[in-house]
Automatic annotation (TrEMBL):
Upper lineage: Bacteria, Bacillati, Actinomycetota, Actinomycetes, Micromonosporales
Protein name according to UniProt: methanethiol S-methyltransferase
Species the sequence originates in: Catellatospora methionotrophica
Keyword annotations of the record: Membrane, Methyltransferase, S-adenosyl-L-methionine, Transferase, Transmembrane, Transmembrane helix
An example molecular function term from Gene Ontology annotations: methyltransferase activity
Places the protein is found: Membrane
Keyword tRNA processing: no
Length: 250
């Protein structure tokens, strides 16, 4: 009984860490309503800042990619109970993001700055839509599975946890990676782009483009032909306008 309560508490803690990390990241990139935005923090030489920021981004990328691989999951569930495996991944990913946000060094050279109010408003709106698409897509695909809560609740109820499995709900009939599209849009849509924000956006986009190749490699291995067919029919990131409209009607 105690183990079950601890598992649920741990799952909720990991989920809270994720919520804190994502909400802070939104404020961080917008330089809004957070104590330290992407353009704040200790200043020093440019190259030291680039090296530290690249190291922080790289640390997150390695942690997130390695821990998401099936072979790693098989190995470490020999030590970590399967019910809290996902929560542990979520917690460690959130801590890696937290470290990045905390230790991030600003690079304040201005890359672009939009003055026209209508364009500023448009860019902030697009940015908000990117974050919105990301959150919506997690619910479409299985928010509480993605962040480990259903796994710990199944453990608490002493029932077997069944993964939701591969699905093609609405957004996933338009592009294969709507969550990642949301991230990319939110990273780039800003009226004021500094060198530091640009580094974050470029590295984040590069990481996503590489990360989805690993994800799709695993999906191809586990699903085979159905995933091949899906990948032929549905584009990865950029919707085909007519095909998207037709599929949305299916
Ligand atoms: C963070 S989600 C990102 C999903 C997708 N790449 C996106 O950008 O929306 C990663 C997890 O989603 C799973 N996944 C990806 N496409 C899926 C689909 N169509 N149905 C169910 N799970 C999917 C992957 O196996 C992986 O465990």
């Amino acid at each position: 009984m105690l183990r079950r309560i601890l598992a649920v508490g741990y799952g909720v803690l990991a989920y809270a860490a994720f919520l804190a990390a994502i909400v802070y990241t939104i404020g961080f990139l917008a330089n809004f309503a957070v104590p330290k935005g992407v353009d704040d923090g200790v200043t020093g030489t440019v190259w030291l800042a680039v090296a530290i920021d690249a190291g922080l981004l790289g640390l997150f990328a390695v942690q997130h990619s390695v821990m998401a691989r099936p072979w790693f999951k098989r190995w470490w569930t020999r030590f970590v109970p399967a019910a809290v495996e996902r929560s542990t991944f979520v917690l460690l990913s959130s801590l890696a993001v937290g470290l990045l946000l905390w230790q991030w060094r600003p690079l304040t050279a201005q890359m672009w700055s939009v003055e026209a109010m209508w364009l500023r408003t448009l860019l902030w709106t697009v940015c908000g839509l990117g974050w919105g698409l990301l959150v919506l897509s997690t619910f479409v695909i299985g928010h509480f599975d993605l962040f480990g809560l259903r796994q710990v609740l199944a453990r608490a109820r002493d029932t077997a946890y069944a993964e939701p499995g591969f699905r093609q709900p609405l957004l996933y009939r338009i592009v294969r990676h709507p969550i990642m599209v949301g991230f990319i849009v939110a990273f780039w849509a800003t009226p004021d782009m500094t060198a530091g924000h640009l580094l974050f956006a470029a590295a984040g986009t590069g990481y996503i483009l590489i990360g989805v190749r690993f994800e799709e490699h695993d999906l191809r291995r586990s699903l085979g032909e159905p995933y091949e067919r899906y990948a032929r029919q549905v584009p990865g990131f950029i919707p085909r306008v007519r095909a998207a409209a037709e599929r949305a009607e299916v």
